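User: Before I run my own analysis I want an independent prediction to cross-check against. Here's the chain; please return only the structure tokens and, at the end, one sentence I can use as a sanity check.
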Amino acid sequence: MILHRYFARRFTMTFLATLGGFMLLMLLIDLVEQLRRFGGVATFAEVLQLSLLNLPDGLYGILPLIMVLATIAMFLGLARSSEMVVTRAAGRSALRALVAPIVVTLVIGCIAIAVFNPLVAATSKEFEARESALKSGGPSVLAISSGGLWLRQGSDTSQTVIRASKTNLDGTELMDVTFLTFTPDGGPTRRIEAETAQLSPGAWTLTNAKVWPLDRSRVAEQWATTHTELRIPSTLTADQIRDSFGTPSSIPIWELPAFIDRLEVAGFSATRHAVWLQMELALPAFLLAMVLIGAGFTMRHQRGGRTGVMVLTAVLLCFALFFLRNFAQILGENGQINPVLAAWAPPLAAIGAAMGLLLHLEDG
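Assistant: Structure tokens:
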């Protein structure tokens, strides 16, 4: 038990040291990039805040790389100090020595998806909002709630809020739709209800629409008009609507199942978000696969010039697994394979292969 605690403490300290090194390096690189982009329109304090907000997302993306490097660093240190030799001489196999790092890895993975994931989602949203403000691009034009789909479009003379109960996959055809137009000072000027609204370049085309003028000097119902077809100018495009969803990583994992349900009710495809949810749930298994691959090539006593080759092999295999996982994610998002299979197959296959390698090296 004492040996397990020692290995767990050693692995945790190595992981934290590696994480701290990457944190400092990424902060400096991102700070230079943000200064290049916004140095002329923002103060240094604002640019530093942008970099700090962007840092959690960057660290979360390279967490598997940090994990494999921490594993390699720890086991190389144990091998060079002959601690692994002593452990084996005391009757403990290398597989039993892996128990503590495995437990620590699973704990780190659970903390990552339970705590770090919502933190990344919050900081990513704030980063995108501040970046949009500096670019003068405005906030997102789309929101989905239990009340339906909400869109916003505007010009120099008016702002229009659009609500629809349902839409097609890309948000360009709305059903049971309401348009509310406001003046720049916030007063309502017109309300329109229609059966459908089709987005075309430069305008919405409404069918079976009814228009109420919201003028205090007139009775709205008395002056209401009906139109079989009505065109309303629009500055929105299909790309703007799709981009308003942002990335699935901007939604905390605790809110993601409900968001997926709202997407499906609204008529959008939720495949991308369903794949991301499964990828996040599979993160502890993926981190475990990284640890086992790193350990498989560095646990044995290193002799001569083989150390560099073994480390390079471990890192390259981990990169190959990382790209295989991303490829499976793309297949899942395109609907080629099931989201659960896309998320869980690569790490589970890697764990099986790494365990086979460890058993072969230990027992022959």
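Sanity check: The beta strands are 142-145, 148-154, 159-167, 173-182, 188-200, 203-213, 225-233.
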